[in-house]
Amino acid sequence: MSSCGVIPRKTDMTRPAVSILIDTYNHERFIEQAIVSVLDQDFPASEMEILVVDDGSTDRTPEIIRKFAPRVRYLRKENGGQASAFNFGIPQAQGEIIAFLDGDDWWIKSKLGVVVEAFAQNPDVGAVGHGFHVADEKGTLKQTIVPARRLRFSLRTHEDTERFTQLRCFLGTSKVAYRCRIARQLLPVPEVLRFEADEYLWTLAAALADALVVDLPLFVYRFHASNNYMQSSQDVQALRRRLAVMEGLLDHLTPTLADLGVSAEIAGVALEQIRFDVRRLRLMIDGGTPWETYSLERAEGRRAYRSTTLGYQAYKHISLLLALVTPPRLYYRLKYSYQANNMRRFRSWLGEPQPKAEVHETHFTPEALPNGGK
Questions:
Q1: How far apart are CA 169 and CA 213, in angstroms?
Q2: What pTM value is reported for the model?
Q3: Mind listing the pLDDT tens digit for each residue in 303-341?
Q4: I need a surface site. Which of 43, 169, 236, 271 has the fewest CB within 10 A?
């Protein structure tokens, strides 16, 4: 295992300042854009290395990656999922900072410069995340989500942990960079986590050092048919795979947080959303009582919002009443059909609730796309 480097001085370029770790699997339609977005960064090429971990692709992904040699180092392994890709790639990174990118996403040109400067200004921070754009399969931007301001948090106090739960969405794979010494301490990632391995990393990283989120959108998350998040609520096998992963997260994070000195109370707050997700998946797959659905939906609503309008309260009461009289599996089929068909826009007429998270969301039409989004 190679040792972590340090941010090099101008006179010592023996190690890169940043290692970029791109994980990919059957991304032949997207991987070139991901790699080019790294090569086009407003950041010195001599101060970064690019590693692409191919998790056993069976399409043209390897051929496309090899076009970028020697600028890009190609690392191929047998298919094993996201955790195994991290376990394979992180030990080979030489930079003092390791920045991650999924092979179907891409970065904004200023990404690395902003992130490296954030680390330089905050030497005690172990992880840096940031806001993001959301695009459809063709790459057309649809939404921008950013923190309301630069914020720091950890898993030291109850208040800080509440902030962690609200802002953890800004620490996902393509949005996050870690100091090498922090990333190495998180290995090995349990390989049951074929996806959601990034959640394992960001949770433990916040137990080891402060995390910082930057109030700029510095990458584009691409929704497409193969995303794990895009799996149908009626695909029972996909739901069972997701349930196994979420249960694996709980099973491994709970004792590891304790080993790192995180109290049971703080860990309970940090892992609450995962527990909600596990309960919902069990109801969607195996069913249960309407009261279980009602209790879960009510608890999640109270946790998510600081204040609500009278119109939204009326809508939520109707939704909860439906949960009380509908079998769980049918309730969630109806709920996800409502979301998939973008019927949420009708709810907005009633007034949007105020979330606890300090987050700004912007939806825009094609003629109002921000510069640099494609």
A1: 10
A2: 0.88
A3: 876 666 777 677 788 889 999 999 999 999 988 876 665
A4: 236
Task: Compute CA 129 distance to the chain's CA centroid, rounded to the nearest angstrom.
Answer: 10
- Asked if 231 contacts 224 with a C-beta cutoff of 8 angstroms, the reply is no
Q: What is the DSSP string of 84-143?
A: HHHHHHGGG--SSEEEEEETT-EE-TTHHHHHHHHHHH-TTEEEEEEEEEEE-TT--EEE
C-alpha span between 283 and 260 (Å, rounded): 32
Q: Is the pLDDT assigned to residue 45 strictly greater than 60?
A: yes
pLDDT computed for residue 15 by the predictor: 73
Decide if 77 contacts 55 (C-beta within 8 A). yes
Domain boundaries, the chain: 18-229, 233-351
Helix, strand and coil percent figures for the chain, each rounded to 5: 50, 20, 35
* Architecture in CATH for domain 18-229: Alpha-Beta Complex (3.90)
